[in-house]
Automatic annotation (TrEMBL), chain A:
Major localization class: membrane
Name of the protein: ABC transporter permease
Annotated Gene3D superfamilies: MetI-like
Coiled-coil region(s): none
Species, as recorded: Sedimentitalea arenosa
Membership in a protein family: Belongs to the binding-protein-dependent transport system permease family.
InterPro entries membership: MetI-like (IPR000515), MetI-like_sf (IPR035906), OppC_N (IPR025966)
Subcellular location: Cell membrane
Highest taxon listed in the record's lineage: Bacteria
Lineage of origin: Bacteria, Pseudomonadati, Pseudomonadota, Alphaproteobacteria, Rhodobacterales
Signal peptide residue numbers: none
Keyword annotations: Membrane, Transmembrane, Transmembrane helix, Transport
GO biological process: transmembrane transport
Automatic annotation (TrEMBL), chain B:
Compartments where found: Cell membrane
Protein name: ABC transporter permease
GO biological process, one term: transmembrane transport
Annotated ranges, domain ABC transmembrane type-1: 112-328
Membrane-spanning segments: 7-29, 112-139, 151-171, 201-221, 263-285, 305-331
Major localisation: membrane
Naturally occurring in which organism (per UniProt): Sedimentitalea arenosa
PROSITE patterns listed in its UniProt record: ABC_TM1
Origin superkingdom: Bacteria
PANTHER family: INNER MEMBRANE ABC TRANSPORTER, OLIGOPEPTIDE ABC TRANSPORTER, PERMEASE PROTEIN
Amino acid sequence: MSRLPDGRYVDDAPFDPKANIQTLERRDLDAPNWVLVWRKFKQHKLGLVSGVFLLVCYLMLPFVGFIAPYTANERDSEYLYAPPQSINLFHEGEFIGPFVYPTLAEADLETFQWKFVTDETRPMPLEFFCEGGSYRLAGLIPSDTHLFCAPDGATVFLWGSDRLGRDVFSRILYGAQLSLTVGLIGISVSFFLGIGFGSIAGYFGGKIDWVINRVIEILRSLPELPLWLALSAAVPSNWGPVAVFFIISIILGILDWPGLARAVRAKFLSLREEEYVRAAEMMGASSGRVIRKHLLPNFMSHLIASATLSIPAMILGETALSFLGLGLRAPAVSWGVMLNDAQNLASIEIYPWTAIPMLPIIVIVLAFNFLGDGLRDSLDPYAD
Amino acid sequence: MSILRYAVYRFGTMLLTLLVVSALIFVIINLPPGDYLSNQIAELRASGQSAGVAKAEFLRTEYALDRPLWQQYLIWIGFLPGPQGFSGLIQGDFGWSFEFDRPVAEIVGESLWLTVLVNLAAVLFVYLVALPLGVLAAARSKTWVDYTSAFVGYLGLATPNFLLALIMFYYGHKYFDLPIGGLMDPIYEGQPMTWEKVKSILIHLIVPTFVIGTSGAAAMMQRLRANMLDELGKPYVETAIAKGMSPSRMLTKYPLRMAFNPFVADIGNLLPSMVSGSVLVSVVLGLQTIGPTLLTALKTQDQFLAGFVLMFVALLTLVGTMISDLLLVLLDPRIRYEGRET
């Protein structure tokens, strides 16, 4: 900036007649679409935090055997319904690292319950990278090293133990493996069906459209849970846990697709009239290619956002089914199966920690909701 | 006059839908291999009780379970004469429950009305809660009112219904002395309706209504808030404020009416999830609705009972959706009566 003798201020930079054309109207729109979306998503703090949290949760799944101090079905018959224990650092004002106080079970002959007495005089330090029950890392590599476990003669039930003396904390970690993936498989099924039927209906129109539309309307007007119940009641009881798990996730997905299909169909109806679609058709592209290469990419991101929002429904659905005893079955561990124990008022009152699996459910469902909201808000970077 | 025509048209489509749904339900409940009686016969044979076998065989022919599936379906609906002539759903014969060894109609009996009652109460609850809260959250957006209601709403959406039921039950009983379990005091069960019985039912309804309604109310509230916010940004609102209209009057006179449409139309989405929720919650809380009956019927493969309950649940949602469609037309004269021409 320099000052002319007559008192005006003039910019020193050389004059560029094309400046108006070259500079972008908005500096923030100078990058590919996904960068713009990412920039906007980063501002949605709650969504970002939820996304990172979910990512950590899913990445943890293959290693739950290592993190959990016990294995899923390891029983300690001395400690039925043991209350949660805390890990302490200081004993009588002295720092001695993480340790637990041993508990002793005593039978109370008046109430016929086990009473647990904590012996606060003997701190027992936790062991790290110790040997425990064997498990398979990521389902493949056999191992028996655990991140931490209880010293001999003590237990470490962070969130208590259940009616068979199994560690609730470890079971929640193992349960996450099924409870979290059930939503992913379900949503893949629903995605596949929804996009398939939705695009066929929207692209071809006519009679097919009419039929698919009626099917969508009928399925949407039916209550999901009774149908889920009926379908899962049809799963043969002699199937193994893995087969049951897959079929349950597929059942969850089968009833979820109509909402997605409707959105896809509506988009297709408007997009198929665009010129680039006609151009592609005239150049001899097959219907399948037009749908996959030219139409779907237009709103894939929106579909992903709406899928994120419907994963929670599936997780809750699995929980409900297992809770009612029609979903996953006993040797399999999922949060719903665990909550089956907390089914009656008595256990809520006497052993409230058996209901702890509801906390991860609530947290995960909330996280998916926030992530979905964040994604939805940031998918249109050109909006204000 | 044309509202009447629309009503007839809507009713017709509902009946057709119901027909398709009945086929769907019939297929689903027949998915498991075998049926209640053939399983029973196999079991009896295995244990060598031939007397029971004869009875079960007799029942099998009596209820046409030995015929091909498509005939069974038509007999069940009442389009084909069964062994006793036409006696299907449309003739008002709901079939026989093998598990309870009684007619289906007798088993479900009173619980049908209680199911309708519970769902009605839950829908009312959703509207009564979501309407004021949604409007308030929009009018006072980005204040603590908005944030609190959003937080509670999110929690409502995220908490599994059945857990909420257990917790509410426990604390409701502990602090407010609300009754535990059931829909009425056991002494009124099977009694004719009296004022005392109605009172007992109403008190017992508090917790289930709250539990079933919460997630619906949360979703409804969020949608109403979004709609209201859209409307509040429009120029006519500014004009109204500039002209000195009082905020509450302005709010109720214009934007609320506009935002109300989706509110009514939404019942089509709301109702299926509410009915789902009520089935689940009934099982947990032991309400005398058809939820627990459905669960036992499905687990024991008691096909007529399961089929009837599923049909009833579907009918409930379809009728609810139809009513909401008709209401919508009454509320908003801009909506066309005819079906969409595409």
